[in-house]
Amino acid sequence: MRRLWFLYLAFAVALLSGCATTSQQSPRLSADQLKSLGEKALSANDTGASLRFLTEAERERPHDASIEYDLALAYNQRGFKDQALQHIKKALEIKPNYPEALNTIGYMYAVDGQFDLARDSFTKALNDPFYQTPQIPAYNLGRLYEQRGDYTNALSYYRQAVKLAPGYAQAWYEIGRVLERTGKNDEARNAYQKAVQESELPQAWLHLGIMSYRAGDFKSAAGAFGQVERIAPGSPLANEAQKYLQKINTPAWQHLRGDHRKRKKT
After folding, report:
1. To pair with 174 at 20 to 30 A between CA atoms, which of 17, 145, 164, 244?
2. Which one has a higher pLDDT value, 157 or 7?
3. Does the global pTM surpass 0.70?
4. Three-class SS of residue 110?
5. Which pLDDT score, from 0 to 100, does residue 250 have?
6. How many domains does the chain have?
7. What single string gives the DSSP state of each residue in 57-102?
């Protein structure tokens, strides 16, 4: 009996040893596989997992600009700005003409209030003929100038952004904001109309409603404010829309709306 038990124990140990050997011999993930896993985790907002995969990818391939760029995005998303800047600078050391990295470091500089560095980085990204989304640095340049109160340059870059990508709703919205600030209400209204045609931006609907209200087009205004309440119920934007709707729903407006209905019936 003891011999049988000993043989069983020896068999179990051998089996476990065999499993451990097999496990140890399993192939390691390549840098590309680790990078892909890191990017997927980053897209899912799992920055902890993303950083683990990307750090391992960097160990496997330490001079890869795209891995350094991904690490910068992950650290930035996690809120570690210094580490993010360190990796984005390393990406640009490896690949100086890296438009995505130039745009990202431009954003970091802009957040930090470093206007000249941000402008130069965005401009380099915008001027790269191989950059697939040049409308983004164009938009960022517009934001940069708008924040300084330079509406002429801001509008120029926003218009360049929508020329490069006609469906860029956020850029159309910013065009509307600049035009509204400079008193060009009819043009602003058209820009907001373009924005809402491309995307359901509640802020664009709100400003379209305000421009329509100011133009005396109360029916269009009411429709726009209703869209704000539908898209962003309970938000500050919806509360603002509701204030305008209350103004519209006065006895005078009710009378106008009644006349409109009467004309349609005759």
Report:
1. 244
2. 157
3. yes
4. helix
5. 74
6. 1
7. HHHHSTT-HHHHHHHHHHHHHHT-HHHHHHHHHHHHHH-SS-HHHH
